[in-house]
Amino acid sequence: MILNEAAASDIPGLVALVNSAYRSPRAMAGWTDERGSLEGPRTGKQAILTALGKSRMKVARPSSGTNPVPCIHIALGEDRDWYLSLLAVAPDQQGKGVGGALLEDVARQASESGIRHLRITAIRQSRDLIAWYEARGFRSTGETVCFPYDDPSVGRPLRNDLELIALERLLPSRSAASDRRAIFAKKRIHDGPPDDREGRTLMGIGEA
Predict the structure, then answer these.
(1) Which of 33, 147, 166, 171 could be disulfide-bonded to 29 (CB atoms 3.0-4.6 Å)?
(2) 54 part of a folded domain
(3) Is the pLDDT confidence value at 66 over 70?
């Protein structure tokens, strides 16, 4: 799988990917599914175009294809933390560690850039999604955000108690991240290359 910055040519594929992961009536229910809380498109071409113009989106593609399989949106906040959104994995690829591998790559890049926190908001009722993030080091900050009921771009709410909660993940300092990479490199030299099982574990393949 090849990781790249998203470009304007990726917009149709990104719209299809995000909508299938969160709201598609034809998709299998996965850890990003919001269909019990909202209906209608999760995003559209203009929203993705605006996101690309203001910040970054990263996509990964299988070596045999061109359509993105996972994606994630990254915005730099005024507090110098990275704010993540639109992390989506194609429903037929969920449960294979694809999203986890993408998230860990983002965390590595953030740490190497001196970023101390990754931050997200999630719908409080999306228990599977919140549990997925918690399993990867995110913790609730205790802050809540009112759900934007007056914003038609988020879709049509199916319940009147929706609320967003804030989660964050503390990242190691740049020096600590460098030290870990050096230790891992020495271990590989000493022990030899990892077998397929170890490599799959390191990349999160096979995990939820």
Answers:
(1) 33
(2) yes
(3) no
Range of the domain at 118: 2-202
CATH number, domain of 163, equals: 3.40.630.30
pTM of the complete model? 0.79
Judge whether 208 and 135 are in contact, CB under 8 Å.
yes
208 within some domain: no
Q: pLDDT value at position 200?
A: 33
β pairing state of 38-39 and 56-61: unpaired
Q: Under 8 Å CB-to-CB from 110, ≥6 apart: which residues? A: 82, 118, 171
Residues found in the chain = 208
Determine the average pLDDT of the residues in 179-198. Answer: 50
Q: What is the pLDDT of residues 173-187, one digit of tens each?
A: 876 555 555 554 555
Report whether 45 contacts 94 (CB < 8 A).
Answer: no
Split at pLDDT 50, 70, 90, the class of 3 is confident
AA letter at 40 = G
| 207: in domain | no
Report the alpha-carbon angle 139-144-149, nearest 5.
130
Residue 57 within any structural domain of the chain: yes
Lowest mean pLDDT among 12-26, 41-55, 103-117, 187-201: 187-201
How many Cβ atoms from other residues are within 10 Å of residue 126's Cβ? 21
Write the DSSP assignment of 23-68 as a string of letters: T-TTSPP-TT--TTTEES-S--HHHHHHHHHHSEEEEEE-TT-SS-
